[in-house]
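Translate sequence into C-alpha coordinates.
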Amino acid sequence: MSDALRLPGQSDRFFVILNPTAGALEPGRLRRMLGGAFAHRRAAFDLVETERAKHAEELAREAVARGYRAVVSVGGDGTLAEVVTGLAGSDVPLGIVPQGTANQVALNLGIPNNLEKAVDVIVAGHTEPMDLGQLDDGSYFALIAGAGWDARVMAIATREMKDRWGFGAYLYAGIRESLAPASARYRITADGETIEVEASTVLVANVGEILTGLIPVGVKLGPKISVRDGLLDVCVFAAKSIPDVAAVLWRVASGQFAGDERMIYLQAREVTIESDPPVVTQVDGDPHGKTPLTLRAVPDAVRVLVGE
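Result follows.
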Protein backbone atom coordinates (compact mmCIF):
# COMPACT_ATOMS: atom_id res chain seq x y z
CA MET A 1 0.00 0.00 0.00
CA SER A 2 1.37 3.45 -0.89
CA ASP A 3 2.16 5.91 1.88
CA ALA A 4 -0.31 8.32 0.31
CA LEU A 5 -3.18 6.09 1.43
CA ARG A 6 -2.02 5.87 5.05
CA LEU A 7 -3.65 8.20 7.54
CA PRO A 8 -1.31 9.78 10.11
CA GLY A 9 -0.48 7.42 12.96
CA GLN A 10 -2.50 4.44 11.72
CA SER A 11 0.54 2.49 10.54
CA ASP A 12 1.64 2.13 14.19
CA ARG A 13 -1.72 0.93 15.49
CA PHE A 14 -3.46 -2.42 15.60
CA PHE A 15 -7.07 -2.64 14.49
CA VAL A 16 -8.90 -5.15 16.70
CA ILE A 17 -12.15 -6.70 15.44
CA LEU A 18 -14.10 -8.33 18.27
CA ASN A 19 -17.05 -10.65 17.80
CA PRO A 20 -18.96 -10.15 21.09
CA THR A 21 -21.03 -13.33 20.59
CA ALA A 22 -18.06 -15.70 20.23
CA GLY A 23 -16.67 -17.72 23.09
CA ALA A 24 -17.57 -17.89 26.75
CA LEU A 25 -16.19 -14.59 28.07
CA GLU A 26 -18.56 -11.70 28.72
CA PRO A 27 -17.80 -8.98 26.10
CA GLY A 28 -17.08 -6.26 28.68
CA ARG A 29 -14.56 -8.43 30.48
CA LEU A 30 -12.97 -9.46 27.18
CA ARG A 31 -12.58 -5.82 26.14
CA ARG A 32 -10.87 -5.03 29.45
CA MET A 33 -8.53 -7.99 29.10
CA LEU A 34 -7.61 -7.01 25.55
CA GLY A 35 -7.06 -3.39 26.55
CA GLY A 36 -4.82 -4.43 29.43
CA ALA A 37 -2.82 -6.84 27.26
CA PHE A 38 -2.10 -4.29 24.52
CA ALA A 39 -1.46 -1.47 27.00
CA HIS A 40 0.99 -3.62 29.00
CA ARG A 41 2.98 -4.10 25.80
CA ARG A 42 2.70 -0.39 24.93
CA ALA A 43 0.94 -1.26 21.68
CA ALA A 44 -1.58 1.28 20.39
CA PHE A 45 -4.84 -0.14 19.13
CA ASP A 46 -8.41 0.62 18.12
CA LEU A 47 -11.19 -1.85 18.89
CA VAL A 48 -14.53 -2.27 17.14
CA GLU A 49 -17.21 -4.88 17.86
CA THR A 50 -19.06 -6.61 15.05
CA GLU A 51 -22.78 -5.97 14.84
CA ARG A 52 -24.00 -8.28 12.06
CA ALA A 53 -22.98 -10.94 9.59
CA LYS A 54 -20.16 -9.86 7.25
CA HIS A 55 -19.41 -6.83 9.44
CA ALA A 56 -15.93 -8.18 10.25
CA GLU A 57 -15.17 -8.32 6.53
CA GLU A 58 -16.26 -4.69 6.09
CA LEU A 59 -14.18 -3.56 9.06
CA ALA A 60 -11.10 -5.41 7.81
CA ARG A 61 -11.38 -3.73 4.40
CA GLU A 62 -11.65 -0.34 6.08
CA ALA A 63 -8.59 -1.08 8.21
CA VAL A 64 -6.61 -2.00 5.09
CA ALA A 65 -7.61 1.25 3.40
CA ARG A 66 -6.54 3.23 6.45
CA GLY A 67 -3.15 1.53 6.63
CA TYR A 68 -3.20 -0.11 10.05
CA ARG A 69 -0.16 -2.01 11.26
CA ALA A 70 -2.19 -5.23 11.49
CA VAL A 71 -5.80 -6.38 11.79
CA VAL A 72 -6.59 -8.63 14.76
CA SER A 73 -9.47 -11.12 14.71
CA VAL A 74 -10.94 -11.81 18.16
CA GLY A 75 -13.49 -14.59 17.85
CA GLY A 76 -13.72 -18.04 16.33
CA ASP A 77 -13.03 -19.57 12.95
CA GLY A 78 -16.19 -18.04 11.45
CA THR A 79 -15.11 -14.52 12.46
CA LEU A 80 -11.64 -15.24 11.10
CA ALA A 81 -13.10 -16.25 7.73
CA GLU A 82 -14.77 -12.86 7.45
CA VAL A 83 -11.62 -11.00 8.47
CA VAL A 84 -9.38 -12.81 5.96
CA THR A 85 -11.92 -12.07 3.23
CA GLY A 86 -11.37 -8.39 3.96
CA LEU A 87 -7.58 -8.76 4.16
CA ALA A 88 -6.86 -11.15 1.27
CA GLY A 89 -4.43 -9.74 -1.27
CA SER A 90 -3.35 -6.82 0.93
CA ASP A 91 -0.05 -6.29 2.71
CA VAL A 92 -1.71 -5.77 6.11
CA PRO A 93 -0.95 -8.74 8.40
CA LEU A 94 -3.51 -10.79 10.30
CA GLY A 95 -3.32 -11.24 14.07
CA ILE A 96 -5.44 -13.83 15.87
CA VAL A 97 -6.77 -13.90 19.44
CA PRO A 98 -8.69 -17.20 19.60
CA GLN A 99 -12.01 -16.78 21.40
CA GLY A 100 -14.32 -19.22 19.63
CA THR A 101 -15.48 -22.72 20.42
CA ALA A 102 -12.87 -24.64 18.41
CA ASN A 103 -10.23 -22.11 17.17
CA GLN A 104 -8.77 -24.65 14.75
CA VAL A 105 -7.01 -22.19 12.42
CA ALA A 106 -5.11 -20.57 15.28
CA LEU A 107 -4.12 -23.89 16.79
CA ASN A 108 -2.92 -25.22 13.43
CA LEU A 109 -0.70 -22.14 13.21
CA GLY A 110 0.66 -22.62 16.73
CA ILE A 111 -1.10 -19.55 18.13
CA PRO A 112 -1.94 -20.10 21.81
CA ASN A 113 -5.47 -19.99 23.20
CA ASN A 114 -4.28 -17.91 26.16
CA LEU A 115 -5.17 -14.26 25.49
CA GLU A 116 -1.97 -12.75 26.92
CA LYS A 117 0.22 -15.15 24.96
CA ALA A 118 -1.77 -14.56 21.78
CA VAL A 119 -1.25 -10.79 22.12
CA ASP A 120 2.46 -11.47 22.66
CA VAL A 121 2.51 -13.17 19.25
CA ILE A 122 0.68 -10.25 17.65
CA VAL A 123 2.98 -7.58 19.07
CA ALA A 124 6.33 -9.40 18.93
CA GLY A 125 5.85 -12.14 16.32
CA HIS A 126 6.77 -12.31 12.66
CA THR A 127 4.63 -12.80 9.56
CA GLU A 128 4.37 -15.90 7.41
CA PRO A 129 2.28 -16.34 4.25
CA MET A 130 -0.80 -18.55 4.34
CA ASP A 131 -2.91 -19.93 1.54
CA LEU A 132 -6.67 -19.44 1.59
CA GLY A 133 -9.57 -21.08 -0.17
CA GLN A 134 -11.96 -18.90 -2.12
CA LEU A 135 -15.59 -19.55 -3.03
CA ASP A 136 -17.26 -18.51 -6.24
CA ASP A 137 -19.02 -15.65 -4.41
CA GLY A 138 -15.61 -14.10 -3.74
CA SER A 139 -15.45 -14.91 -0.01
CA TYR A 140 -12.47 -16.74 1.49
CA PHE A 141 -11.99 -19.48 4.04
CA ALA A 142 -8.96 -20.46 6.09
CA LEU A 143 -10.00 -23.81 7.58
CA ILE A 144 -12.38 -26.22 5.85
CA ALA A 145 -15.41 -26.15 3.59
CA GLY A 146 -17.62 -29.20 3.51
CA ALA A 147 -20.76 -30.82 2.19
CA GLY A 148 -22.92 -33.46 3.82
CA TRP A 149 -22.33 -34.95 7.28
CA ASP A 150 -19.99 -32.28 8.66
CA ALA A 151 -22.26 -29.46 7.49
CA ARG A 152 -25.23 -31.08 9.21
CA VAL A 153 -23.18 -31.33 12.41
CA MET A 154 -22.34 -27.62 12.20
CA ALA A 155 -26.00 -26.75 11.64
CA ILE A 156 -27.14 -28.80 14.64
CA ALA A 157 -24.53 -27.23 16.93
CA THR A 158 -26.30 -23.89 17.31
CA ARG A 159 -24.84 -20.77 18.94
CA GLU A 160 -26.98 -21.41 22.01
CA MET A 161 -25.66 -24.97 22.31
CA LYS A 162 -22.05 -23.85 21.90
CA ASP A 163 -22.51 -21.15 24.54
CA ARG A 164 -23.91 -23.74 26.94
CA TRP A 165 -21.77 -26.81 26.19
CA GLY A 166 -18.71 -25.49 24.33
CA PHE A 167 -17.09 -28.23 22.23
CA GLY A 168 -19.63 -30.64 23.69
CA ALA A 169 -22.16 -29.18 21.24
CA TYR A 170 -20.14 -30.58 18.34
CA LEU A 171 -19.77 -33.94 20.07
CA TYR A 172 -23.52 -34.18 20.58
CA ALA A 173 -24.23 -33.20 16.98
CA GLY A 174 -21.60 -35.59 15.63
CA ILE A 175 -22.93 -38.55 17.60
CA ARG A 176 -26.50 -37.75 16.59
CA GLU A 177 -25.62 -37.62 12.89
CA SER A 178 -23.44 -40.76 13.11
CA LEU A 179 -26.36 -42.90 14.28
CA ALA A 180 -27.76 -42.90 10.75
CA PRO A 181 -25.20 -41.33 8.39
CA ALA A 182 -26.97 -40.10 5.27
CA SER A 183 -25.23 -40.36 1.91
CA ALA A 184 -25.58 -38.78 -1.51
CA ARG A 185 -24.16 -39.28 -4.97
CA TYR A 186 -21.33 -36.77 -5.37
CA ARG A 187 -19.78 -35.51 -8.57
CA ILE A 188 -16.39 -33.98 -7.72
CA THR A 189 -14.40 -32.10 -10.35
CA ALA A 190 -10.80 -31.39 -9.34
CA ASP A 191 -8.64 -29.45 -11.83
CA GLY A 192 -10.79 -30.71 -14.69
CA GLU A 193 -10.83 -34.37 -13.65
CA THR A 194 -14.20 -35.72 -12.47
CA ILE A 195 -15.07 -38.60 -10.16
CA GLU A 196 -18.48 -39.79 -9.03
CA VAL A 197 -18.87 -41.49 -5.67
CA GLU A 198 -21.49 -42.35 -3.07
CA ALA A 199 -20.34 -40.67 0.14
CA SER A 200 -21.51 -39.26 3.44
CA THR A 201 -19.31 -36.15 3.43
CA VAL A 202 -16.84 -34.28 1.24
CA LEU A 203 -14.39 -31.91 2.91
CA VAL A 204 -12.15 -29.37 1.19
CA ALA A 205 -9.34 -28.54 3.60
CA ASN A 206 -6.85 -25.69 3.74
CA VAL A 207 -5.32 -26.73 7.08
CA GLY A 208 -4.31 -30.21 8.12
CA GLU A 209 -5.37 -30.94 11.68
CA ILE A 210 -8.78 -31.07 13.31
CA LEU A 211 -9.69 -31.31 17.00
CA THR A 212 -6.34 -29.68 17.83
CA GLY A 213 -6.40 -28.49 21.44
CA LEU A 214 -9.78 -30.15 22.04
CA ILE A 215 -8.50 -33.67 22.60
CA PRO A 216 -5.05 -34.74 23.87
CA VAL A 217 -3.70 -35.40 20.34
CA GLY A 218 -4.59 -33.47 17.19
CA VAL A 219 -5.98 -35.52 14.30
CA LYS A 220 -4.38 -35.14 10.88
CA LEU A 221 -7.23 -34.96 8.38
CA GLY A 222 -5.22 -36.09 5.35
CA PRO A 223 -1.73 -37.14 4.25
CA LYS A 224 -0.32 -33.98 2.61
CA ILE A 225 -2.35 -31.00 3.80
CA SER A 226 -0.41 -27.75 4.14
CA VAL A 227 -1.36 -24.06 4.34
CA ARG A 228 1.62 -23.24 2.13
CA ASP A 229 1.42 -25.62 -0.85
CA GLY A 230 -0.98 -23.65 -3.07
CA LEU A 231 -3.45 -26.56 -3.13
CA LEU A 232 -6.76 -27.56 -1.58
CA ASP A 233 -7.14 -31.09 -0.23
CA VAL A 234 -10.37 -32.93 -1.03
CA CYS A 235 -11.23 -35.58 1.57
CA VAL A 236 -14.10 -37.92 0.68
CA PHE A 237 -15.54 -40.19 3.37
CA ALA A 238 -18.04 -42.89 2.47
CA ALA A 239 -19.29 -44.13 5.83
CA LYS A 240 -22.70 -45.80 5.52
CA SER A 241 -23.19 -47.26 9.00
CA ILE A 242 -22.06 -46.81 12.60
CA PRO A 243 -19.28 -49.43 12.14
CA ASP A 244 -18.16 -47.56 8.99
CA VAL A 245 -18.06 -44.28 10.92
CA ALA A 246 -15.98 -45.88 13.68
CA ALA A 247 -13.61 -47.49 11.17
CA VAL A 248 -13.07 -44.29 9.19
CA LEU A 249 -12.52 -42.22 12.35
CA TRP A 250 -10.01 -44.77 13.60
CA ARG A 251 -8.06 -44.79 10.33
CA VAL A 252 -7.96 -40.98 10.20
CA ALA A 253 -6.91 -40.75 13.86
CA SER A 254 -4.14 -43.29 13.35
CA GLY A 255 -2.91 -41.75 10.09
CA GLN A 256 -3.87 -44.71 7.88
CA PHE A 257 -4.99 -42.80 4.81
CA ALA A 258 -4.45 -45.41 2.08
CA GLY A 259 -5.97 -48.78 1.31
CA ASP A 260 -9.61 -48.16 2.25
CA GLU A 261 -12.26 -47.54 -0.40
CA ARG A 262 -14.29 -45.54 2.13
CA MET A 263 -11.58 -42.82 2.06
CA ILE A 264 -10.53 -40.90 -1.06
CA TYR A 265 -8.01 -38.03 -1.13
CA LEU A 266 -7.38 -35.54 -3.95
CA GLN A 267 -5.34 -32.35 -4.27
CA ALA A 268 -6.32 -29.57 -6.66
CA ARG A 269 -6.24 -25.85 -7.31
CA GLU A 270 -9.91 -25.71 -8.30
CA VAL A 271 -12.72 -27.94 -7.00
CA THR A 272 -16.45 -28.19 -7.71
CA ILE A 273 -18.74 -30.38 -5.58
CA GLU A 274 -22.15 -31.37 -6.92
CA SER A 275 -24.53 -33.89 -5.40
CA ASP A 276 -27.78 -35.73 -5.98
CA PRO A 277 -29.77 -34.87 -3.97
CA PRO A 278 -28.40 -31.41 -3.03
CA VAL A 279 -26.92 -31.42 0.47
CA VAL A 280 -26.15 -28.72 3.02
CA THR A 281 -22.71 -27.12 3.04
CA GLN A 282 -20.57 -25.25 5.57
CA VAL A 283 -17.57 -22.93 5.35
CA ASP A 284 -15.31 -22.57 8.39
CA GLY A 285 -18.09 -23.81 10.64
CA ASP A 286 -20.89 -21.57 9.34
CA PRO A 287 -23.80 -22.75 7.13
CA HIS A 288 -23.37 -21.93 3.44
CA GLY A 289 -26.52 -23.13 1.69
CA LYS A 290 -26.50 -26.31 -0.41
CA THR A 291 -24.45 -27.90 -3.17
CA PRO A 292 -23.10 -27.15 -5.71
CA LEU A 293 -20.00 -25.67 -4.11
CA THR A 294 -17.11 -24.26 -6.15
CA LEU A 295 -13.76 -23.40 -4.58
CA ARG A 296 -10.22 -22.51 -5.56
CA ALA A 297 -6.88 -22.23 -3.79
CA VAL A 298 -5.30 -18.78 -3.47
CA PRO A 299 -1.59 -19.17 -2.63
CA ASP A 300 -0.05 -16.77 -0.09
CA ALA A 301 -3.32 -14.86 0.13
CA VAL A 302 -2.69 -13.40 3.58
CA ARG A 303 0.22 -12.81 5.93
CA VAL A 304 -0.29 -14.12 9.45
CA LEU A 305 1.48 -13.04 12.66
CA VAL A 306 2.95 -16.15 14.28
CA GLY A 307 5.42 -16.85 17.08
CA GLU A 308 9.03 -17.89 16.88
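Note: The domain at 141-299 is CATH 2.60.200.40 (Tumour Suppressor Smad4).
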